[in-house]
Structure of GDP-mannose 4,6-dehydratase:
Amino acid sequence: MANALITGILGQDGPYLAKLLLEKNYKVYGMIRRYSTPQFDNLDYLGITNKIEYIEGDLTDDASLLNIIKNVRPQEVYNLAAQSFVGSSWEQAKLTTEINAVGVLNLLSAIKLFSPTSKFYQASTSEMFGLGNDNGYQDENTPFHPRSPYGISKVYAHWMTVNFRESYGMFACSGILFNHESPIRGIQFVTRKISDGVAKIKVGLAKDLLLGDLEPKRDWGFAGDYVEAMYKMLQQEKPEDFVVATGETHTVKEFVELAFKTAGIDNWQSYVKSDPRFKRPAEVPHLQGKSDKAQKALGWKPKTPFPDLVKMMVEADIKRYQDKNK
Ligand code: NAP
Ligand code: G4F
């Protein structure tokens, strides 16, 4: 039986990836931090909480990683753990760097020492492109110009992954994934904040929704589709980096409009208020990925159209509140 280690198993992508690997008969190890009250809600949502073997560890604690890699010797390691919220990365720049940059070096070093044949996946991001925008889209050849401490930390991790591949011949690769969302997306991220906010307004629990800049454009896909690309990258003959995106871009405002419409509320302008607290010191104005390489080499393509994604998220949040009231 193949085995895999997933860091960040309690986040959004971890549960979707774990579900996919369990369906392929993998034994899945999930690394979690020490909690006073662990939150398994996202794994519960997908019904797989009891199918995973949990191990305590932290990306910033290199000894914990050395022990985990030595004991498990996973065939595949998916490094999804991160301080992944761009907005907080200005306030907690050092912590973001320690987790997202140095943490990845810690993990790669542990693999090199104790399990050098493990295949390694690094969760790289379109935030690395930032202002880099070739011909209106970004692909594997677009230069990086990150705009946040988060983006910068991910550029370090990305190049460290490339360097372990080139220096030691390790099977290490990065998926440069554009924004991907789902009903278990963290509540701070704009799509879930909107779907949750719309649901609260719909069921009478809120009167307004406070947002920052509505003009930035994002290439939003469904997380369930994107974890398939992660898996496929580690099944290749040789390690390479791939952009994973839908190729479509929409403003935050378009997401808002569609979310309210889906809930049957026409006049979204009456509910959405601008709040400067949610604006960023430096913005990434336009992300739109070109995933031709992944489509050709991995046979991967996005399956969930933008309107279906918005609908899925809004309906799931409305159902959550309706179920609570039963
Ligand atoms: P997420 O929901 O924020 O999950 C991140 C997970 O990392 C959480 O479970 C968190 O644990 C864990 N974590 C944080 N710090 C850690 C540490 N020091 N040691 C061990 N675990 C730690 O993120 P996601 O949306 O699933 O994204 C997965 C990965 O893809 C992240 O690396 C993210 O940066 C990257 N990415 C995401 C997107 C996207 O659109 N979703 C796009 C491109 C790249 P706790 O539960 O303890 O907080
Ligand atoms: O949902 P967001 O916070 O996601 P962002 O910053 O694009 O980052 C996400 O995608 C990256 C991939 O490109 C990942 F690497 C990263 O880990 C994360 O998953 O914000 C999206 C846009 C931004 O332009 C932001 O300024 O929405 C804008 N926005 C407007 N009002 C808001 C809000 N964002 C948030 N979170 N909250 C608001 O009230």
